[in-house]
Amino acid sequence: MGLTATKAKTAKRAVAKSRGGRPTRDAAIARDQRLIEVATRLFLERGFDATSVDAVAEAARISKPTLYAQYGDKRGLFAAVLRRQIALWLAPLAAAARDMQDDKSSDLSVEQRLIELGRQLLSLHCEADAVAFSRILTAQAINFPEVAKLAVDEGWSKALSTTAEFFDHLVACGALDLEDTTIAAETFLNMVVGHTHRMATFGIPIDVKDAEKRVQVSIRLFVAGALGPPDRAQFSKTAGKRKSPR
After folding, report:
1. What is the pTM of this model?
2. At what angle do helices 157-172 and 181-189 cross, to 10 degrees?
3. 2-41, pLDDT tens digit by residue?
4. Which CATH number fits domain 82-246: 3.40.50.12280, 3.40.50.720, 3.30.2110.10, 1.10.357.10?
5. Where in the chain is the domain with CATH 1.10.357.10?
6. Tens of pLDDT along 176-228?
7. What's the fold here for domain 17-72?
8. Which residue intervals of the chain bear CATH 1.10.10.60?
9. How far apart are CA 85 and CA 80, in angstroms?
10. How far apart are the first and last CA of the chain?
11. What whole-number distance in Å separates Cα of residue 161 and Cα of residue 139?
12. What DSSP designation does 190 have?
């Protein structure tokens, strides 16, 4: 009986120690996700300067040492928040590129595809959160150049390359005639999102109907210059293959 009781006590101590040790992988992922969500909300509500590490740790119900160990400091935390937002903003472009590779929605014209993509980008980049992040980045760019560089490298540059990849496929199947798909991608993004997002960042009220009309008219102008011969107006799987100029 004495030996059995001793083993039972030892096992009980082992369980207690395990419960008080490091969190499981799933628990750690859930904790980090909650932390990023809380930090995102506080940065958007208060701005970068008025958001403290203490406030984030308290709201996320984690210790400051845990936060510092994971992200280093407030700038590292904001960088993680920004990466998450960039992934959300890039999602429509990535989906369009995948659909193009998989030959999905091939019954839509090039103009219809681009207008639908333009509407999605407009909705994402001109919503309140995107505008708020743009203002924070603009305000912090001088004193916080590494995060400004992050926004360019992982945001704008990836958006540009993904859009160029989308145009590469349209050129390869003969649907568009573009001299340089990277320049075309830059023109498309500035044309569809640039003006409206800039006005929203300045605090100028945006009329959604006017913004969508601007997208449609701009894309028609873009397509008119990129279609080439009239028989390219309708995308087709059987269209002649063309080599991308990139």
Report:
1. 0.70
2. 120
3. 544 444 444 444 433 334 556 677 777 788 888 999 999 9
4. 1.10.357.10
5. 82-246
6. 889 899 999 999 999 888 888 888 888 888 888 888 898 899 999 888 887 75
7. Arc Repressor Mutant, subunit A (1.10.10)
8. 17-72
9. 9
10. 80
11. 27
12. I
**17 three-state secondary structure:** helix
Contact between 118 and 215 (Cβ < 8 Å): yes
Cα distance between residue 71 and residue 14, in whole Å: 31
Rounded-to-integer distance, Cα 56 and Cα 166, Å: 39
- Inter-CA distances, 14 with 7, 9, 19, Å: 11, 9, 9
* DSSP codes joined into one string, 29-95: HHHHHHHHHHHHHHHHHH-STT--HHHHHHHHT--HHHHHHHHSSHHHHHHHHHHHHHHHHHHHHHH
Residues 6+ apart with CB under 8 A from 227: 110, 176, 177, 233
